[in-house]
Amino acid sequence: MVSFVQSVVLWNSNRTQAGASSDDLCEICGLKPKFVEKGFKHPYCSRTCARSSGQGASPTACLLPGCRATGKPAFSNFCSEDHAVAGVRQGQVAGCARCGVQPSTVGELCVACDRRARAGPKLRELNPDSSTFKNLRAQFLSEWESSVGDLPTFERAYEAILTRDVRVRHDVYRAKIGGSEEIRTFYSTLCVCDLGSKDNNLCNGQTCGICCTVKSAFISFAFGETSMGGRFGPGVYSYRNPARAHTFSTSCTTSPYQVMVACDAIVQPGQVSDEDSGANEESIFIPTADGILPAYVIMYTV
Q: What is the DSSP string of 218-285?
């Protein structure tokens, strides 16, 4: 029986070696093929042979010093998420440029941050019977002040679902300005897609001012512009009076709707005075995109 087992082992050894050249076999055991990782051939077949060689952990081991578990591609070659975070904290690998917690695996970002960045803002239609829809419609119509024509018809509305990092930047900006106030303003520009008519998705057109500003949360505008011009310099200009914003509304499609963005804008103390009779005609200047958010997209007819 012993001689039979020895014969089987010898046969397997000869079979393994026959299937691979000596250059392809592990330099320690000489039985198994060398480990290949991303096109690079290591001198050992496994972690066990790497350790016995005295050269340290194998190429498949967790990158965290002292850990003997197998590294996993899902955790950037660490064995677990906890060890990946520890590796960033200890300086073993570069951290994500956005969260600084997880290893950077997709360019300068970690997988989660890259996924969130690609997702971008989305729109969710408001139920006409909801209090949010009714309050927004009442605000839109009550703030509309124009000496020309009748009040518009408020048709549909969508809530802008923004990413967490956009809202964090907004909150940080508000905290920096002591005594700041958040007010509702309105913004409109060129719309070249059928938003709200054929579908509820923001388009990818570089010339669609509405979709560019909502998707980027006012970081970029149509034609790649990074700010608007005005008497206060580059920044974002919107209006408390939606009728004033309407003068910039342009549609190049067959959609029956005009499109406007209702914004949450943070203003400096004393920047806006309700006692000023011309306040609704003046534009509200926000120096940076962090100070203004697209809150709702409104479809209306005039």
A: TS--GGG--SB--TT-SBEEEESSHHHHHTT-EE-SS-S-EEEEEEEEEE-TTS--TT-TTGGGSEEE
Spatial separation of the C-alpha atoms in residues 205 and 71, rounded to whole Å? 42
Same domain, 135 and 26: no
Residues 103 and 229 placed together within one structural domain of the fold: no
pTM over 0.70: no
Same domain, 210 and 223: yes
Rounded CA separation 58/27 (Å): 13
Which class for 31: exposed (0-12), middle (13-18), buried (19 or more C-beta within 10 A)? middle
Judge if 101 and 135 occupy the same domain: no
pLDDT tens track for 235-268: 999 999 999 999 998 877 678 899 999 999 999 8
Question: Bridge-partner residues for 95, per DSSP?
Answer: 103
Q: Same domain for 155 and 284?
A: yes
For residue 6, being part of any structural domain is answered with: no
- Two structure tokens written together for 69: 């578990």
SS (H, E, C) 107-173: CCECHHHHHHHHHCCEEEECCCCCHHHHHHHHHHHHHCCCCCCCCCEEEEEEEEECCHHHHHHHHHH
67-125 confidence digits (pLDDT tens) = 888 888 778 888 999 999 999 999 888 888 778 888 887 777 787 777 766 666 889 99
Q: Where does a domain end: 99, 118, 137?
A: 118
Average pLDDT over every residue of 144-156:
88
Residue 284 lies in a domain: yes
Range of the domain at 37: 17-60
**Residue 8, in any domain of the structure:** no
The amino acid present at 222, given as its one-letter code, is A
- Expressed in percent and rounded to 5, the helix, strand and coil fractions of the chain are 30, 25, 45
The answer to the question of residue 83 being in a domain is yes
Number of compact structural domains in the chain: 3
